[in-house]
């Protein structure tokens, strides 16, 4: 039976490999960072079980590990990691052509298939997938299958995937954790009542009976929280719980599906404009070794602003028309 923690263990092993490679190159801060992170991923399930059993020590140690990651991040420096010669990479790209997209396209396809049909799969009467998110399990399986397909296409050794993964991790550095941490922060904000506090602030600052004012507060709030958190998925529960649900849906009768879809897209406008969205905006600059780390953001601004205005107009027009 496949469970989510099996893939966390695999990810922990890859992180441990990245730490070992850095240790051999005497990059001690990088080695310690990936090593601590590998321990957190590998021991996460054990920490959860111990906490549920009333033993607080493992969770406290995990908290110390998170603090250690923050301290180690200040010591990490982006350095050029050797890769295949340019002539070899160009020759490989010309040989493979559009087949290069096959592994990338397999990931969403296999993920959707697992989500749709994985719950019905069984071996000897036992479910193939255990408790946990089928989406996460499907994404993990899809990633592994896509890696195998990519290795078969380039006729590479199995260790090639781990070596390239390590090179990508070191190119990103601590920023590789930002999406994970910021998404978690959104859940913490929602659980701690930040949404209700925002609703109270919005109601005191704007006329809540004016539909246009509330739409602007919701849309611009999605952008602002996304800029702060770097992740529209983290901003969505906060702004929807605080403004979207009580003021737009319940008070003004907005269509939940339309409001949610356009609201999320509005949050993505903030993604285009913030360095906190490291996987979208900092990683490409790091991989391309651009002199300006914010070059991607500067290029996206002319798209983000008009798209934001169009989304606000569509939200006001469509969410109340059906």
Distinctive features:
single chain; 322 residues; mainly alpha; two-stranded antiparallel ribbon; 75% helix; globular; transmembrane; DUF979 domain-containing protein; membrane; transmembrane helix
Q: Averaged pLDDT, please?
A: 85
Cα gyration radius (Å): 22 Å
H/E element order: HHHHHEEHHHHHHHHHH
Number of strands: 2
Portion in helices: over 70%
Cα(first) to Cα(last) distance is 45 Å
What form results from the Cα inertia axes? globular
Number of domains: 3
Describe the largest sheet. 2 strands, antiparallel
Return the structural class.
Answer: mainly alpha
Beta content = under 5%
Strand order of the largest sheet: 1-2
Q: What features would you describe in this structure?
A:
The protein has helices at 4-24, 28-52, 57-73, 86-96, 101-117, 134-154, 158-172, 178-191, 194-205, 211-229, 232-251, 256-271, 278-281, 283-287, 295-318, and strands at residues 122-123, 126-127. It is mostly helical. Helix 5 (101-117) packs antiparallel against helix 6 (134-154), helix 8 (178-191) runs parallel beside helix 11 (232-251) and helix 10 (211-229) packs antiparallel against helix 11 (232-251). The termini are far apart. Pfam families: DUF979 (PF06166).
Task: Give the helix/strand layout.
Blueprint: H1 4-24, H2 28-52, H3 57-73, H4 86-96, H5 101-117, E1 122-123, E2 126-127, H6 134-154, H7 158-172, H8 178-191, H9 194-205, H10 211-229, H11 232-251, H12 256-271, H13 278-281, H14 283-287, H15 295-318
Antiparallel strand pairs: 1-2
Helix pairs in contact: 1-2, 1-7, 2-3, 5-6, 8-11, 9-11, 10-11, 10-12, 10-15, 11-12, 12-15
Pfam families: DUF979
Transmembrane segments: 6-23, 30-50, 56-74, 100-123, 135-154, 175-206, 212-236, 257-277, 297-319
Keywords: Membrane, Transmembrane, Transmembrane helix
